[in-house]
Amino acid sequence: MAAHPPVCEFGWPAVDAELPGVDGKKHRIFECRGENGLLVAFICNHCPYVKAVIDRLVRDAAELSAIGIGTVAISSNDAEAYPQDSFENMKRFAQAHGFSFPYLHDEDQSVARAYGAVCTPDFFGFNKALKLQYRGRIDASRKEEAPKGTARDLFDAMRRVAETGEGPSGQIPSIGCSIKWKEAA
Questions:
Q1: How does 1-23 read in b/e, with b if 16+ C-beta sit within 10 Å?
Q2: Exposure of 108 by Cβ count < 10 A (0-12 exposed, 13-18 middle, 19+ buried)?
């Protein structure tokens, strides 16, 4: 089921947590930031919206790193109900797409809840003070390949954050599959 996150709540503070990464190490979210900010991307392995944009996210993360924006990706889906999103499959997904940033497993879903993540992909762009400045889409594509010349909303917004500390006032929310929440015990 497709879900839309709410619009950006400018100035909302990032939340730190320590989670296991597909590289076999534990990572703190705040340690993933660059000197000019941090992009936190809630993704998963099986969502067609993520599959459509993942290579552009990898490209954007590499280019953002060069201007001082760090990136971290987090999978919070219920892997028991959706085995495609298991930790082992996260490792394969990251390797297949050449992730240059940590891909972390939020098994208990506490980080997704703390961020108010709604869908995959759901992007949170923070400035160097770790205050939210962008919560929007990667670009105008949905589950399709982006046509040549498509504006790079996420990249352009985060470049602006790196340069000025502020995101654009006009932002278009991402769209994606709803986060697969675990049933309450």
A1: eebebeebeeebebbeeebbbbe
A2: exposed
CB-based contact 47:176 (threshold 8 Å): yes
End-to-end alpha carbon distance in the chain: 23
Residues 6 or more apart in contact with residue 88 via CB below 8 angstroms: none
Domain ranges (residues) in the chain: 2-178
CATH number of 2-178: 3.40.30.10
* Residue 133 structure tokens: 């400045």
pLDDT by residue (tens digit) across 76-128? 999 999 999 999 999 999 999 999 999 999 999 999 999 999 999 999 999 99
DSSP string, 79-121: TTT-GGGSHHHHHHHHHHHT--S-EEE-TT-HHHHHHT--EES
